[in-house]
Automatic annotation (TrEMBL):
Membrane-traversing stretches: 21-45, 65-89, 110-129, 141-159
Domain Oxidoreductase molybdopterin-binding: 286-417
GO cellular component: membrane
UniProt cross-references to Gene3D superfamilies, sorted A to Z: Oxidoreductase, molybdopterin-binding domain (3.90.420.10)
GO molecular function list: oxidoreductase activity
Segments forming domain Cytochrome b561 bacterial/Ni-hydrogenase: 29-158
Subcellular location: Cell membrane
Taxonomic lineage from the root: Bacteria, Bacillati, Actinomycetota, Actinomycetes, Micrococcales
Protein known as: Molybdopterin-binding protein
Example GO biological process: respiratory electron transport chain
Membrane topology, as annotated: Multi-pass membrane protein
InterPro entries named among the record's database cross-references: Cyt_b561_bac/Ni-Hgenase, Di-haem_cyt_TM, Mopterin_OxRdtase_euk, OxRdtase_Mopterin-bd_dom, OxRdtase_Mopterin-bd_sf
Length: 418
């Protein structure tokens, strides 16, 4: 078994499988994870804010940028993680596989980190297509797993910090420490000499000793360092560039993999949740529909005609969804602050938005006072110069700056102070 392990490590030896390359790819992967974590936290707390939290409403496209960046960084993790696994793959054949408790904990934490990373980015990718082939709730598990991943990342960096520090700079390859060579377990060299010497006529040969003392830069391979980095760079650029167009307009023409295309959908805006899925068509199209606004025990109901008779405001705001796609659009309707003033709502009042949709995670949402009093926040009645389409929330929907699409409540039925 030991001889087979050493043989496997020798067969897998490559100039790119060295601590310096692992550090370079690890830096990029770590940055991508941190970007995902930070933007993911922002998105999570926008959807489930703590009582004391207040959020920026400017720039109005803020969530469009943060969530688009979140998805792009998550997609970039795929080629970067595969590249890192390619580099460290020979370590799986180290013998003995565990050299003590500390070594066991190190390998176990890395195994958990890799496994959790693959699960997390795969879940995130499938979420962009709104496909959930698992029995657990996506948002809660994705959030919890994000914290677990950051914890495992900190442990991994702590364990590998001496090596990371040593190989951080470009010139570190010229002073490699033989004990850090990933494809050879230097602590077991004596055992390797014994095994190879006893298994070959004439004992230990010069070839065997050359292998044992080799560093990655002296081993030959069809994959060069420059070629490897070029391949990783091209792969990362491709998966990002061919997806980012669903968020960033300049790349829309090359959006081949994103699940949404800009300008495609009713009234030129994509639709995530349809009226059929929400089961609201009958209620939304009913002649007796009204929007009820309730503040401090006082209620007032508005028909759509009455809402149209109030002062109308036009704004340009994006729909920006958690799946990473976004679309800028023109909206027209009544400022929420005007409705609040009609019922003498306190300037610090927050609201609960209630949809005609009876079931669904976001059939009821909360809106903090920073959005309520923003002049761009509307009860929208028109979209892109036309009467709001049923799929976009007819007879009335909410639109506000810097909010996720799931919080831009469609098919409004009630707005009440909280």
């Amino acid at each position: 078994m030991r001889r087979l392990m050493y043989e496997a490590q020798r067969a897998l030896a490559s100039p790119v499988r060295n601590p310096r390359m692992a550090t370079v790819i690890g830096r990029l992967l770590g940055a991508a994870f941190l970007i995902c974590f930070g933007t993911g936290l922002y998105s999570h707390f926008l959807q489930e804010p703590l009582d004391w939290m207040r959020f920026a409403t400017r720039p109005e496209f803020l969530y469009q940028v943060t969530q688009g960046t979140h998805i792009i960084a998550g997609i970039a993790c795929f080629p970067l993680l595969l590249a890192k696994l390619y580099i460290v793959f020979p370590n799986l054949f180290a013998y003995p596989p565990v050299r003590g408790l500390v070594h066991f904990l190190e390998r176990a934490s890395i195994a958990l980190f890799v496994g959790a990373s693959l699960v997390q980015i795969t879940m995130g990718l499938l979420n962009t297509f709104q496909w959930y082939p698992w029995p657990f709730p996506f948002r809660q598990v994705h959030f919890a797993l994000g914290w677990a991943l950051i914890g495992l990342l900190v442990i991994h960096i702590g364990v590998k910090l001496p090596m990371i520090t040593r190989y951080w700079s470009k010139g570190s390859l010229d002073s490699e420490h033989p004990e850090d060579v990933s494809s050879v377990d230097r602590a077991s060299n004596a055992e390797a000499v014994r095994l190879w010497g006893s298994s070959r006529p004439g004992g230990v040969t010069g070839r065997v000793l050359d292998y044992i003392d080799a560093t990655p830069r002296t081993l030959t391979s069809s994959v060069s360092r420059r070629g490897f980095l070029t391949t990783v760079g091209v792969a990362t650029t491709a998966v990002v560039g061919l997806t980012a167009g669903q968020t960033f307009t300049p790349l829309n023409a090359v959006n081949l993999f994103g699940p949404r295309k800009k300008g495609v959908g009713q009234q030129g805006v994509p639709v995530n949740r349809t009226s059929e899925q929400a089961k609201v068509a009958d209620a939304a199209l009913a002649a007796g529909w009204t929007l009820t606004v309730a503040v401090a025990g006082t209620e007032r109901s508005f028909t759509r005609s009455e809402l149209l008779a109030l002062p109308q405001t036009e704004v340009q705001l994006p729909i920006a969804c958690v799946e990473g796609w976004s679309q800028m659009a023109h909206w027209r309707g009544v400022r929420l602050s005007d409705l609040a003033d009609l019922l003498s709502a306190d300037p610090d009042t927050s609201f609960r938005l209630i949809s005609l949709e009876e079931r669904g995670s976001f059939s009821k949402t909360q809106m903090g006072r920073e959005y309520v009093r923003d002049p761009l926040t509307l009860v929208a009645l028109e979209l892109n110069g036309e009467t709001l389409d049923l799929e976009h929330g007819y007879p009335a929907r909410m639109i506000a700056p810097g909010r996720p699409g799931v919080l831009q409540t469609k098919w409004l039925s009630r707005i009440e102070a909280i």
